[in-house]
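$ ./design --mode recover --in tokens.txt
reading tokens...
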């Protein structure tokens, strides 16, 4: 290696180190808790310990239409006064009294710290709606040994809700990746899935909204693989959370929706109503306001 090669290598190293330091500063500035270590074995370990299950939705097996509400990032914090933990559920309750649905799906980060008191509180609050509730695992739900709390309350983190009309897949990417085991299972399921419509729900967005937003699926190759899989098998809608930023996009015929957080101090709170019928899949976004809600 001559002096010119050494100088070029040193310059490349200096630039790389500078970019790494800038990234670290940016991470600290916006909050490192949004960056989850990417460990494929972690997701696969959950899959191996508790394999996916299929849940047949009682009373809806032959239904020609059905509806559900999807929200994300309630992040119940046991350190707050009870009246400040879930105020967004009040307008949601009022909405559902006027426009009922068949069930509720929470898209992860149901808790702030993954502790038992938070798991119990949000579960009881949502169950009080008197509707079946299904839960997606989020990164906050894993904090402080939260996976143990999840197992006791919900069992496996990967499920598919089934009717003749709809298959709704609740996926586990709470560590930032679907992982090979879950991805293989999903491909096999979709290949044999005869439901007219297929919808995905997961916590991490599959794609980031722009180059400055770094909280999308960390493994871009995996994200591209999943997107292709969804396209091949006619998935209609992908519901996600985590970013606390509302956005929608249509990519190759599939609607990708990221819901803003429903937590107490979050601006632009919103939830999604999804109506599925023989005519198709329709998403309605409902914004929570100071006075209630606004469609």
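writing sequence...
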């Amino acid at each position: 290696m001559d002096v010119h090669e050494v100088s070029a290598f040193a310059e490349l190293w200096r630039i790389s180190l500078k970019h790494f330091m800038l990234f670290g500063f940016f991470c600290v500035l916006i909050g490192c808790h949004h960056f989850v270590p990417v460990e494929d074995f972690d997701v696969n370990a959950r899959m191996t310990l508790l394999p996916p299950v299929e849940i047949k939705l009682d009373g809806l097996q032959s239904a020609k239409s059905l509806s559900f509400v999807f929200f994300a990032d309630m992040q119940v914090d046991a350190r707050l006064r009870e009246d400040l933990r879930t105020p967004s559920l009040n307008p949601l309750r009022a909405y559902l009294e006027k426009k009922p649905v068949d069930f509720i799906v929470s898209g992860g980060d149901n808790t702030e710290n993954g502790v038992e008191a938070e798991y119990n509180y949000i579960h009881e609050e949502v169950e009080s709606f008197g509707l079946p509730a299904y839960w997606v695992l989020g990164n906050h739900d894993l904090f402080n040994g939260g996976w143990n709390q999840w197992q006791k309350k919900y069992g496996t983190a990967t499920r598919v809700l089934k009717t003749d009309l709809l298959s709704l897949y609740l996926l586990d990417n709470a560590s930032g990746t679907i992982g090979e085991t879950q991805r293989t299972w999903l491909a096999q399921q979709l290949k044999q899935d005869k439901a007219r419509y297929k919808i995905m729900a997961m916590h991490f967005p599959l794609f980031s909204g722009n180059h400055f937003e770094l909280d999308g699926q960390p493994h871009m190759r995996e994200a591209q693989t999943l997107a292709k899989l969804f396209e091949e098998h006619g998935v209609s809608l992908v519901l996600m959370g985590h970013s606390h930023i509302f956005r929608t996009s249509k990519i190759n015929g599939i609607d990708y929706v990221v819901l803003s957080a429903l937590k107490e101090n979050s601006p632009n709170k919103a939830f999604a109503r999804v109506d599925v019928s023989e005519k198709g899949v329709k998403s309605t976004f409902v914004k929570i306001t100071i006075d209630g809600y606004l469609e």
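exit 0
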